[in-house]
Amino acid sequence: MKKLSSILFTLLLSFTIFAQYDYEPSKKNPFGLLNPEAPKQTADYAPIIGECTCKSVSRIDQNTWADTVMMKWTYKYILNGMAVQDETLKEDGTHSGSIRQYNADSSLWYVHYYSSNVATPTLSAWEGNMTESDKMVLYKDQTAPNGTPGFFRITFSDITETGFNWTGEWVNKAETFVYPTWKIFCLRKE
Is the pLDDT at 127 greater than 50, yes or no? Predict the structure, then answer.
């Protein structure tokens, strides 16, 4: 009887532990699932959860854009479906990723960026939201080389079930001057 009780307790504990992680990536759901207990804004990234094939192009100087770099950009739910993580793997050997969490108290997305180029003790962070025109716009304070205060603004646009576009650009505080530095065009991998 004691052995049967021990087996039943172990089975119950196993079901309880695994039920806590129902929304994590798995064989059945390789990109995880949105946790119904997550803030509703966590679904902002739902159309791009999965794997995309992308073309990335960045600015060399004011007049020149570098050659296109092919990349794979993968988005998945993490923290048991309460947040989103992305990872880029680029043909040129530079890779990066972000952890994206929505904070209901501030009503903002916080995006923490990391890269294979350099390990930093503190991750860069952007904050922002989905706009009424279905664009995700994120900002980080950044001063221009000439000392002008501004932001590095990231915009996800043309978001559909088949892909999205991404633009990184420096803007002044009033957003009347815009200087694009990086563009990415993504199609969902079939």
Answer: yes
Q: Read off the pLDDT of residues 155-171 as tens digits, 9 standing for 90 and up.
A: 999 999 899 999 999 99
Give the global pTM: 0.85
Q: Are 139 and 125 in contact (CB under 8 A)?
A: no
Structure tokens at 177: 């001057």
Domain formed by 2-188, architecture: Beta Barrel (2.40)
Question: Sign (positive/negative) of CA torsion 167, 184, 104, 142?
Answer: negative
Sort strands 83-90 and 69-78 into parallel, antiparallel or unpaired: antiparallel
**Rounded to the nearest 5 degrees, what angle is found at the Cα of 83, between the Cα atoms of 78 and 84?**
70
* List of residues 6+ apart from 17 with CB closer than 8 A: none
Tokens 């680029």 sit at which residue?
Answer: 90
Per-domain residue ranges of the chain = 2-188
The per-residue DSSP string of 117-184 comes to S---SS-EEEEEEE-TTS-EEEEEE---TTS--EEEEEEEEEEETTEEEEEEEEEETTS--EEEEEEE
Are 113 and 99 contacting, i.e. CB atoms less than 8 angstroms apart?
Answer: no
Residue 79: CB atoms within 10 Å? 16
